Amino acid sequence: MRNLTYFIATSLDGFIADPKGGFADFLFEGDHMTAIFEEYPDTLPAQAREAMGIDAPNKNFDTILMGRATYQVPGGLPSPYPHLRQYVVSTRLSTTPPDVEIVTDPLTKVRELKAEPGLGIWLCGGGRLAATLLPEIDELILKVHPIVLGKGIPLFAGDFPTARFAKASTRTFDTGVVFTTYTKAEGP
Fold first, then answer.
1. Taking a C-beta distance cutoff of 8 angstroms, is the pair 134, 163 a contact?
2. pLDDT tens, residue by residue, 42-52
3. Which of 44, 130, 144, 167 has its CA 20 to 30 A from that of 183?
């Protein structure tokens, strides 16, 4: 069974983007980025992989699931992750390129994907989608940046059940960014 991993950058106060969906305040240089390039090349969009000459095979994920706002980030590509199976959760989108599938029932789709063989499933964003999929999230990898946004799109948005996770590992980088991995905890 495959895992659903919410691999996401967040501020110290728990926001994954500013109120307009932007993420320019997050750090995009430094030793934490080297770790992403080397350990998670599959999470880089096509334009970044091409610019950096990264042609590495997928290490962690072969599938990405993202909300409409994440998919339609300004300046985004119509097929941002062609090296992954791409799914966009939306009831408003009507057309996408052939390699990007629109999903209207994310829980059912994730359960189907988890039953298939393959690498992990990356939940890329956003907060409402993460709240909807919380019962199916097996792992959180939070890239906590040393900034306080004060407002924006929360890590989880909306109504959702309480879920417990256990800390699996923590890595601190010279940039001040901290990667913390949590796995779904068993029991209450």
1. yes
2. 999 998 899 98
3. 44
Q: Determine contact, residues 179/32, Cβ cutoff 8 Å.
A: yes
Neighbouring C-beta atoms of residue 7, cutoff 10 Å: 23
Instruction: Give the global pTM.
Output: 0.95
- Rounded to whole angstroms, the Cα distance separating 42 from 187 reads 32
Cβ-based neighbour number of residue 105 at 10 Å: 12
How many C-beta atoms lie closer than 10 Å to residue 10's C-beta? Answer: 23
Residue 175: is it exposed, middle or buried by C-beta count within 10 angstroms (0-12/13-18/19+)? middle
Q: How many CA atoms lie within 13 A of 129 on its CB side?
A: 29
